[in-house]
Design brief:
Blueprint lengths: L18 H23 L7 H9 L4 E6 L3 E4 L7 E11 L4 H4 L3 H12 L4 H5 L1 H18 L5 E11 L1
Antiparallel strand pairs: 1-3, 2-3, 3-4
Helix pairs in contact: 4-6
């Protein structure tokens, strides 16, 4: 026959076989699993329109530089008629200069159209030259749908 457990004396707690410890361990395990879910597995909320706008307005990271061949351009000026200009494009990080050759004609077209409408006076003044360079950067970037090209650099400039 099976042995009967001894009855606890008055004022003593009956033995539960570690039941309280099992409950505490279960609660701790549930809390740990909840923490893991919350920090690792829980899906991230969709970004708000404000967060998306901040990312879209962020400045692109500069990468390689692609040098264009020098160009000779007729200026819109009755006195100084020619501009020989050397240009380089600062590409976005991840856009390789070696792969950009085929697409460089788009930038050349935008640059030619813009500079041929300029006068020598606009290009002589350092402030005017910076304005032209900034405007060219915006136009070239727009031509590539705000991707691939970050900005335009002047590498050489001669007018006559």
């Amino acid at each position: 026959m099976a042995k009967k457990k001894a009855e606890p004396a008055e004022g003593e707690e009956p033995e539960t076989g570690g039941g309280k410890k099992k409950i505490i361990m279960g609660v701790v395990s549930l809390l740990a699993l909840g923490g893991v879910y919350n920090f690792v597995l829980k899906p991230k909320p969709a970004p708000t329109p404000e967060e998306l706008a901040m990312v879209a307005d962020a400045e692109p990271i500069e990468g390689e530089i692609f040098e264009l061949p020098e160009m000779v351009i007729n200026l819109d000026d009755p006195v100084v008629t020619y501009l020989r200009v050397g240009l380089a494009l600062v590409l976005e990080e991840g856009t390789l200069a070696a792969d950009f050759e085929a697409e460089s004609a788009i930038a050349k077209d935008v640059i030619l159209a813009d500079l041929s409408s300029r006068t020598a006076e606009q290009l002589r003044d350092p402030v005017g030259k910076q304005i032209v360079k900034d405007e060219l950067s915006i136009k070239v970037r727009d031509a590539y749908d705000d991707a691939k090209v970050v900005r335009v650099l002047f590498t050489a400039m001669v007018m006559q």
